[in-house]
Amino acid sequence: MKSLQWTTRVFGQSTDLDFTSTLLLPQYAGKVGLHEARVAPDGAVTLESRGGKITGGHDGLLFYYVELDPRRQGFVLSADVFVENYGREGTQDAPQQCGFGLMARDTVGPARREPKDPSFQEIPAASNMVYLGVFGGDRDVNRLRVTRRRGVRSPAELVGVTLDHLDPPFEQNIVTGGAGVRLCLGRNAEGFFVSVQTEDGAMSAPWFVPDCPPNLLEQQDPARMYVGLFASRNAQVRFENIDLQLTPYAPPVPAPELWVPVNDAVRPTLFMRSGDVSREAAYTLTLQGNEDGEAEVSLNGEAAGTLALKGEAPAALPLTLRPGENELSCLYRFEGGPLVERFTVTYLDEGPVPGRLYAAPQGREDAPGTQDDPLTLAAALHRVPQGGTVLLLDGVYPEALRMTPSEAGALGREKTVAAAPGAQPTVEGGLWLESCFWRVEDLTFTGERCLILGSFNRVENCIFCYCNETGLMIGRGKPAGFNFAWPSYNLVLRCESFGNLDPKHMNADGFAAKVGVGPGNVFDSCIAHDNVDDGFDLYNKVESGKSSPVVLRGCTAYRNGYWTDPDDPDHVILGGGGGNGFKAGGEGLPVGHVMERCISYRNLMAGFSDNFNPGELRVTGCLSADNGQQNYIFRDNPLIPPAGVFRRNISLRTQPSSWHDAIAGDADSSNRLWPGPFDDDWEGTEE
Predict the structure, then answer these.
(1) Does one domain contain both 429 and 489?
(2) Which of 339, 342, 436, 458 could potentially form a cystine with 332 if both were Cys, beta carbons 3.0 to 4.6 Å apart?
(3) What does the pLDDT look like over 355-370, one tens digit per residue?
């Protein structure tokens, strides 16, 4: 071991020197940003980490390691592992995104900046890796598992990358404050293997990790592999009797095939965006494709017409259905095609259905749906025809406003749910808009979170308040990387979201478009304030892949990161993970979001933040004032040159601040940032 050059490095997201979201009590304030490797005279190593994170696609951690050549060196790394602290000190919280153990990976991120640059936060570090240790857990009894990450080709190509936690054929725990356990991680021509010390003191037989071939860590840099000990987030772990043996290695011929994430984004696909249940014989079929071409439609075996499909724009075809099931066959012709898709539409012939239906909290399922004899909310949504309207009478609706794909409207025949004239209905069960071609107008939502999971919808003049998660979120698209299938072309217009609080005080935004968002989504003239997390959150996850650009136009965010109890104004909760006005990305994925004429002020953290998004952001004519940290923070990125364009943006301070704006990208003199050319002459006084 002494002949090897061991190195300590701190790198990756949330390893900043001022990272504090995991430190709750004042007595631990001295550990803010602490990442320390202490080597004792006998060779024992204690790793203490107070930051970083282990996520599905990237890491932030404290790493004590050696650099090996994967083309000619195998290894066997062993150590006795003792856990001194695991999880947030002074609390009983279960550890989250915490980890420790023996690790091998194919890259390490750029070393943490010291001294800290206040205009920079550490960027995500993505690596293929395998480790034996603990992830998450329960503070006291920490179950050993094998964790692997596969499919990372470069920091900019992370679509579908996954982190898998595997249970080896032996059960072993490491008790915090208890006896240590000897762990072993190795690699030879067969692959990566692990073993642990059993109750009789002997080492278990080596267990080869499934789907971890010996060339797993030769993807990003074939000449370097990094092997060592790590701790992340909140862990203090001691490693004794460390032994690293290098072993002869000859690469197998041929080289084993490596796992590659599946990306369906370019697969030709034809969607039926109109519902598969109709209450009328007159039905408008709406198709959407992702290749230029045409779709020849047959209805019940007879030619019904042809739709021209251009780009990803939907196209509509009027049809006349027969009672019962109707079979549609669509021959999709495009360059490289054709493709045949078949759909079934069921016409429920239950007599004439009015185009306007009323619903009330005390409505009846079999009512006619008049204002004097209204339906239940669910019954009205099921019964309304294409182009029809559901009007909600006064009252509190405890159930969710839920629209399924079967109940979709159609292009040119959207369905509407709105407040009845003069009414002020409140929906307590949240919004679950998993459908297409709906308009939601003039409603108040409270209690449960609200989601848009479909496409071509419009939400207008609605209020989202005191929800137990984000007020209104667009996203959660699946499968990974398939943008065309994700929620797309939704408009949120003149809506307000405030007072949203989740149990962990870390996730409840005002508005969000994140974790799988397709093209064409717009927030226009919306206001987000007093939410415990961010005002507007456009977060990406590498497991899902890059979202499509979102447009935010004329929107306002203020006092986010602060939540005030409506029944006790003196009871204020600070956000534990955010508090930005506008957060424009996440996890290093480049996406060109657009922010035009937006205003952000007095938020807990930044007014406008790239949140590690180095993409072609367009920020124009925005105003940011008196935010707790930077008014604008669009940082440089050592892995991907930032490509944002910034014009005519203004930063204001009514009091002096040590938080200086920073913009990396194309920012010309039309921007007025803090500190500006005249701020040295500022003559105000601090409160």
Answers:
(1) no
(2) 339
(3) 999 999 999 999 999 9
∠ CA(403), CA(407), CA(411), 5° rounding? Answer: 110
Q: What is the helix, strand, coil percentage profile of the chain, to 5?
A: 5, 45, 55
Residues 47, 104: one domain?
yes
The model's pTM is 0.87
| pLDDT given for residue 266 in this prediction | 60
Residue-by-residue DSSP string for 139-195:
SSEEE-EEEEEE---BTTB-TT-EEEEE--SS--EEETTS--EEEEEEEETTEEEEE
Is the distance from CB of 528 to CB of 470 less than 8 angstroms? no
Give pLDDT tens digits for 529-577. 999 999 999 998 877 778 999 999 999 999 999 999 999 999 999 887 7
Q: DSSP assignment, residue 121?
A: -
Domain boundary among 347, 366, 396: 347
Distance CA(539)–CA(44), nearest Å, equals 40
CA 269 to chain centre: 25
Point out the catalytic residue in the list 514, 541, 546, 583.
Answer: 583
User: Does residue 384 fall inside a structural domain?
Assistant: yes
Please give the C-alpha separations between residue 555 and each of 25, 70, 160, 473, 663, in angstroms, as whole numbers: 36, 51, 32, 15, 21
Q: Is 415 a catalytic residue?
A: no
Number of H helices, E strands in the chain: 1, 59
Backbone angles phi, psi at 283, to 5 degrees: -135, 135
In a shared domain, residues 423 and 489: no
Give the integer Cα–Cα distance in Å for 296 and 319: 13
Q: Is 479 domain-assigned?
A: yes
pLDDT tens readout for residues 428-463:
999 999 999 999 999 999 999 999 999 999 999 999
